[in-house]
Design a protein that fits this description.
Keywords: Isomerase, RNA-binding, rRNA processing. The chain has 8 helices and 14 strands. It is an alpha+beta fold and 303 residues long. The protein folds into 3 domains: 72 residues, Structural Genomics Hypothetical 15.5 Kd Protein In mrcA-pckA Intergenic Region, Chain A (Roll), CATH 3.10.290.10; 76 residues, Pseudouridine synthase (2-Layer Sandwich); 134 residues, Pseudouridine synthase, CATH 3.30.2350.10.
Length: 303
Amino acid sequence: MEKETTVNEKNYYSRLDTFIRKNYPEIKLGAIYSLIRKGFVKVNEKRVKKNNYILEMGDIVKIILDEDKLEELSRPAQPSLKARPVSFDIIYEDKDLLVINKPAKVSVHPGSKEEMATIIEGVMHYSRGEFEPHLVHRLDKLTSGVMVVAKNKQTARELTQLIKSRETKKYYLTLLVGNLNKKSGELVSTVYGKAAQLKYDLKKKFDSFGDIYSLVEIELYTGRKHQIRVQFADLGFPIAGDDNHGDKKRNKLLRKNYGLKRIFLHASKISFDYNNQHYDFSAPLSEDLQIVLDKLEKGTKRN
């Protein structure tokens, strides 16, 4: 028999073995390694024999199983999602779409150690069983901003394909540490071995007591994991608040003097055409990040 699953918002950028374990909890981990190693797993109809193969949105994973070995491969199933209240603002809603302003510090989907309620569980709670929510893209836990939720499987499939074929436009606002000289430009590089591309426009500079920061708007062409963080850090202008790729000393100063409590990254806009209609959605900058900009502005005026 064959088991087939499409990579979606819950698990893209996952390793192949991790993806199989999450989607087929009845299969023992050792058996997953064996199936991959022996060529019983295909991605987009091509056999993949690497456990650490990284999946992308829309990839089709197919597992070829011997019916007689199902009992041998079985193990207890993991707990399912549960509806739990989460506070978020609704930007738009119709019979197919729910667009929300995701708050920071809330994961979009439960992880192996996730105890707090997540966005998908919050939307389940909001739906009260009237629709089955599907996230068509994801934002990191510490990133705020606009997120699109499909209210049925067909819409989820179609929007996922739009994203995979790069027929959507996604914009972010971020604050960079340093004096960005160019007013606009494109970054083309590799992130974790995959091609990555974005365009940026400088919106404003802050020179607060001698420390310079650059506020930029980004149009994301590719959606690699941590792409914006990595590409700007490689350019020499890390995102404010990003300790993993950035300036820890400067981030400590930002926390102390300007109240920055997370990475300064906000999904500001998304646009696409769907069902013969054009959609443009935007989310205002979250209050915590706006406070940081206001304090930087005051410091700039005092210079």
